[in-house]
């Protein structure tokens, strides 16, 4: 069947509007693997694409969706055959290549990962790019920090990356403090395993000094900006921080002292262009020893609900993870 449905964004009179329409599979771009998408998920980058952010998507009309999980329909690559369950996240999917908010995608084989045993397609999209980023963050943190070293902090904890990080760290035995600016975040974060939930002032009130009293053995930072500089100063000796976001800004101020007097390590986390083998390793962990229950924070919608969900991402009222179920799922 060559026709499929997609939530497609158009630029009309200077405004960007999304709607469901029927498209032809033959019009998809070239690629070795054609996939029948069963599930997708919504991320802030999808909302940026849907609202006309030219730093994310250059040309419209466009189908967003940086995450997709589905079944191979056709493959010119011997690693995949029709019927295989696969995952695609990152690279250019949903940015300038039609993404997971369409029922079909055609992509390079180098973007495709076999869905590991123990993880179904819906579970993969509950995690999505947010979960992959959280997993990469925790993996980096654990190169230096173990549960017995002391408490860890997660910033932006009511966002997708933050919530998965809280759940995963708690499962792995860490004492987790979660920081969120949302008044209603405490209960779901404690359900996920947070020992303590604090407001943004927990970090914003820290003095801007080169070194502060050590508060945390490790930090998973999802917001960037000025808070990151304060957190570096408050990280314990031989501790580590990871950073993956910029909602609080693209720059921060720090001194050399935490690095040369305490041996603190700062890891930058990229989940988009990393080697496929690294992505596959994290997915395999989520299918096994890292399996986490995210049902308390998961919302499900069809294409009909995408517009409303995108609006909530843009106005800051969205929380948790939203998965998009396609008709064939």
Order of helices and strands: EEEHEEEEHEHEHEHEHEHEHEHE
- CATH first level of the largest domain: which class? Alpha Beta
Shape summary: globular
Q: How many domains would you count in the coordinates?
A: 2
CATH T-level topology of the largest domain:
Quinone Oxidoreductase, Chain A, domain 1
Average of per-residue pLDDT values: 96
Radius of gyration based on Cα positions: 20 Å
- Please identify the structural class as seen in this structure: alpha/beta
Q: How many helix segments?
A: 9
Number of β-strand runs:
15
> What's the N-to-C terminus distance?
16 Å
Q: Could you name the CATH homologous superfamily of the largest domain?
A: Medium-chain alcohol dehydrogenases, catalytic domain
Give structural notes.
With 329 residues, this protein is of the alpha/beta class. The protein folds into two domains: 3-115 and 294-325, Medium-chain alcohol dehydrogenases, catalytic domain (Quinone Oxidoreductase, Chain A, domain 1, Alpha-Beta Complex); 129-268, 3-Layer(aba) Sandwich (Rossmann fold), CATH 3.40.50.720. The chain is built from nine helices and 15 strands. The strands form three sheets. Strands 3, 4, 5, 6, 7, 14 and 15 form a seven-stranded mixed sheet that branches. Helix 1 packs across helix 9, helix 2 crosses helix 3 and helix 2 (121-141) packs across helix 8. It is globular. The two termini are 16 Å apart. 47% of the residues are buried.
């Amino acid at each position: 069947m060559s026709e499929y449905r997609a939530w497609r964004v158009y630029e009309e009179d200077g405004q960007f509007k999304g709607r469901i329409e029927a498209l032809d599979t033959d019009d998809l771009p070239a690629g070795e693997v054609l996939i029948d998408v069963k599930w997708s998920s919504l991320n802030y980058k999808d909302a940026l694409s849907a609202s006309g952010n030219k730093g994310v998507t250059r040309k419209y009309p466009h189908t967003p969706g940086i995450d997709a999980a589905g079944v191979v329909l056709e493959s010119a690559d011997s690693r995949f055959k029709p019927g295989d369950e696969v995952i695609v996240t990152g690279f250019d999917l949903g940015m300038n290549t039609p993404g997971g908010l369409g029922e079909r995608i055609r992509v390079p084989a180098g973007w495709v990962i076999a869905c590991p045993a123990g993880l179904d397609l819906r579970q993969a999209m509950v995690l999505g790019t947010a979960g992959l980023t959280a997993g990469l963050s925790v993996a980096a943190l654990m190169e230096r920090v173990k549960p017995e070293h002391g408490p860890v902090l997660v910033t932006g904890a009511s966002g997708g990356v933050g919530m998965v990080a809280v759940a995963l760290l708690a499962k792995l035995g860490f004492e987790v403090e979660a920081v969120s600016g949302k008044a209603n975040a405490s209960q779901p974060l404690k359900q996920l395993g947070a020992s303590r939930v604090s407001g943004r002032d927990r970090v914003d009130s820290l003095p801007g000094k080169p070194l502060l009293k050590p508060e945390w053995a490790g930090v998973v930072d999802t917001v960037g900006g000025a808070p990151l500089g304060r957190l570096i100063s408050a990280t314990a000796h031989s501790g580590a921080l990871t950073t993956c976001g910029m909602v609080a800004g693209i720059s921060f101020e720090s001194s050399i002292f935490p690095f040369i007097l305490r041996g603190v390590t700062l890891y930058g986390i990229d989940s988009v262009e990393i080697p496929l083998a690294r992505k596959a390793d994290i997915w395999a962990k989520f299918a096994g020893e890292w399996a986490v229950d995210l049902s308390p924070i998961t919302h499900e919608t069809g294409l009909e609900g995408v517009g409303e969900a995108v609006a909530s991402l843009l106005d800051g009222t969205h929380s948790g993870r939203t998965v998009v179920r396609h008709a064939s799922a």
